[in-house]
Amino acid sequence: MNLIEYSDREMLAMGLADRLATVLKLALDGHDRVSFCVPGGTSPGETFSNLSGVDLDWDRVHVFLNDERWVPEGHERSNTTLLKDTLLTDRARRAIYVPMANDAETPEAGIPALEAGLKEQLPISVLLLGMGTDGHTASLFPGGDNLAEAMAEDAPILLPMRTESQLEPRITLTRRVLADAMETHVLIMGEEKREVLERARRADPMDMPIAAFLRDADVHWAP
Ligand SMILES: O=C(O)[C@H](O)[C@@H](O)[C@H](O)[C@H](O)COP(=O)(O)O
């Protein structure tokens, strides 16, 4: 793991956007198209806004989420809405959005169509992950009802995930899909998450799923 510390959150949002732009450019130099997989939640908004203004061949960049909360688009907890409002705007409006949500009633009903679209995006070229204070990443939650299946080597691309700590059902890319990424960056902010990160470095991924992705990752942190 490579830890990159920034003096504050604004510097992180600038530095991380810059780093992601560089790795996306490098990937675009070597490939006709690249896939860029990003988290939802509250942390990445400013980084996304900075990145959206970068001059890149966005029309060759396929963007999708790590995971989604099963709520309608436009809902305040919709990661898709966050992505469209903060990243897929400005220059990055030309990027190709790959859906991680649809209007099916349940995750189980929605997943087959989403998997069909995601299949051709793998392996992920550039992966950005977030982390929760319980050590979850994407929607790989400690204690999640499908965690064992989602962490397995033979997991499907996507699985539903339900857990008591979360209001609504989720869908998540599984461990093997995320772990296959060519390049992994993790975004965390605040002292509490820094302590969680230190614990996660020695943890069993079934207890703290972020542990499965740290070894080769660049972790970007600000207080
Ligand atoms: O939908 C989500 O919530 C995520 O994609 C999730 O894995 C997130 O990255 C972490 O929970 C951190 O969330 P915060 O940035 O809100 O702390």
Can you offer a commentary on this structure?
- With 223 residues, this protein is of the alpha/beta class.
- It has one domain (2-222): Rossmann fold, CATH 3.40.50.1360.
- It has seven helices and ten strands.
- The protein has helices spanning 9-30, 45-52, 79-86, 107-119, 147-151, 175-179, 191-200, and strands at 2-5, 34-38, 61-65, 67-69, 96-97, 126-129, 158-161, 170-173, 184-189, 218-222.
- The strands form two sheets. The protein has a seven-stranded parallel beta sheet with strand order 1-10-9-6-2-3-5, sandwiched between helices. A three-stranded antiparallel beta sheet has the order 4-8-7.
- Helix 7 (191-200) links the parallel strand 9 and strand 10.
- Helix 1 packs across helix 2 (45-52).
- The longest helix is centred in the first third of the chain and has 22 residues, at 9-30.
- The model has no long low-confidence stretch (mean pLDDT 97).
- The structure holds 6-phosphogluconic acid (6PG).
- 6-phosphogluconic acid binds next to strand 4.
- Residues 39-43, 66-67, 69, 79, 130-132, 136-138 line the site of 6-phosphogluconic acid (6PG).
Helix content: 25-40%
SSE run:
EHEHEEHEHEHEEHEHE
* Strands ordered across the widest β-sheet: 1-10-9-6-2-3-5
Q: What number of domains?
A: 1
Number of helices: 7
Question: Rg, please?
Answer: 16 Å
Bound molecules: 6-phosphogluconic acid
Strand content: 15-25%
Shape: globular
